[in-house]
Amino acid sequence: MNQKILVTGSVAYDRIMDFPGYFKDQILPDKLHILNVSFLVQDLKESFGGTAGNIAYNLSLLGQRPTILAHVGSKDFILYEAWLKKNKIDLSQIKIIPNQHTASAYIITDQADNQISGFYPGAINTPVTQKLKSQSLNPKADLAIVSPQNPVDMIKLPKLFKQKKIAYIFDPGQQTTSLSGNQLKQAILGSKVLIGNDYEINLISKKTGWQNGDLVKRTQILVTTLGAKGSIIQYRDPLAASSGLRMLRIPSAKPRNTSDPTGAGDAYRAGLIHGLLNNWPLPKVGRLAGLVSVYTVEKYGTQTHKFARKELEKRYWQNFQEKL
Question: CA-to-CA distance for 5 and 274, rounded, in angstroms?
Answer without folding.
Answer: 9
